[in-house]
Amino acid sequence: MSTSTMPSSRPTATGGLFDARGRLVPADGELVYSQVDRRYFSLAQPAFTFPGVHAAVAKHLGIADLDRLISAAQFERRCEASRQAVLSDPGLAGLFRGVHVPFVLLPATARADIGDELDTVLLPAVTTSYVEKMPGFECRNYLQGQLAGSIPVVPGVRYERLVASHAKQVVTGWYFPGALAGYAIPEQRRVIRRLPEAVSLSGPLEAAMAFMGTPDILMRIDNYPSLLALSAVQPHDPRHFHFFEAYGWNLTYNQRSMVGAVSEYFSGGLTVCG
Amino acid sequence: MSLALEAAALNGDLADSLSEAEKKKRGDLARRKPYIAAKLAANKERQENGFPTPVIRLAANMLCNFQCDHCCAEHYMDRHLVKLTSKPEQRHQLDLNDIRELSRQADEYGLARFVMTGGEPLVMRDPSFEEVVAAVDPDKHYVITDTNGWFLDPEKARHLKSIGVEKVQLSLDSYIEAEHDDFRNKPGSYKRVMKAIDASFDAGLNLILSTCLVHARVRSEEFKNLCDFSKRRGIGLYVTYAKPVGSCKDHLEWLITKDDADYLRELEKEYPVFTHMTPSYGMFQGCITVKGIITVTSTGEIVPCPYMDMSIGNYLKEPLKVILERGMRNKWLGPHRPDCLIGEDREFIKFHNDTVGDRVLLPVPYGEGFSDADLLPMISLDKLTGVTAG
After folding, report:
1. Interface-testing mutation among B275, B287, B336, with chain A (most A C-beta atoms within 10 A)
2. Where are chain A's structural domains?
């Protein structure tokens, strides 16, 4: 992504759209748990290296010649360029004060259907990557065998762009899993409209790739991490949403109902490709 | 299986994932008490539509033959009030008509489970345990009883089964006899628990053990041995974290850490160990305040968790449905969360304990602790689906 493709965002009084922890500052009337996040449920920045993420993706997807699609150095250059583009935007720069995880999404895994790709390719690879990083613990897809054809993209949250690009080319970028902490799921889908075009709501494809490369995003010893909603897709049951969630030292992929009180524990993510 | 997991375990639409033993148990209940089985089977759908499906812990009165170090109910007992004020409880105490009305409202709202608690339920007087069970109506509600096991001999166990009690939750706080007896301040209580286990099985009662876990105990050999015992005997071990309330208020060192809780989550893979946050058949309920549990005190107050001393309303003054649905909007109690609010969230614990302070009469009434200021915006079912909730 180049700076020129990223419209400048509208800075707030504090000089940006995001707070000191990279959470989008709620506007008046938005459906959030609280204006200020007390960070009881929170994430910690996981350590990563671009060669490490690249190697993990190659290994767990079983793509021995990943370098022919994208090398670790190219991956890093693209992500760094994207980072600089975000940092140069006064409104968006604060995103990088929050947890940020690079991802690389490959056309080789693309299927006609997101659910099928998750079920048969991406989540199994997330599982092996997780278990390798956290021996003795589990990664479990509670929706195994149920995903194909079940999670269409939500219109208007800019996720179609990522899906379309993914089918044709290597997509790289950043996943910001804590950017919409405490936002109601429907509000996550609305709030994207007030953000610059470069930003999309996060969904399961790039989140899965982020976990594959950096499996310990939700690994916390002293605090509970947020549940990471994947709000760019909507299961057929309108009450449900999909998410990654820790269960102790284990990782799960599951769905639950969003009906009820807005939860402090749920966090939506934002994604910047580039 | 824990009380908290009863709903999940009895949901019909999860039948494919059930163990054979669980299917048999449900089938048996459906044959004997189809009305209750149908209500339990509807719980998952109700939960997904944003409605609470709590088990109702009913502390009809607060008599107890024990005086345990860690008791969260001691402050509700006459013996405590007499010490402080020279007088027993002066507030209106639930009578059988009040309990029948609670049962009616709960049934009307689709709730299906009552736990007799206290104090020690088996020493209830005026009304008696049998009268309370009858007033709850074991043909309309799945009835469980807490007990310290002291009086649960074979004859009593058969009697409980005969009056409609389905399940017993038996307290065992150490696998080391001397430690349990010391913790419970009752020599001989460990032996009585062991006998009560056999008596419950022989009478055909469902049974779980309940144990209170403090930080120092989590990784102890004793607790591991208790887990082994539970596995060997095929008894679910319901673990409650120590809470800094009641007699434990000044023992923050008893609280478990997140690391302890995660260690316990790992034990669930190997042993029949449960907390109220343990998922069952793919359902992650998290903290079950209001959503999966309430306690009704002897004064009709509804508290959202057995270990909280702040009310969300009194069903003698306003409908149970109104109280529960308000509780679901409370910022602490309603939203899904994976941890134990009163056992782990230090900010909430401080709010709770500062609010309760040195009050003599508990729980703190609605408006003086929990209040309308805590209410959150809701994501309503009808906005998502066009379906009218009800």
Report:
1. B336
2. 18-273
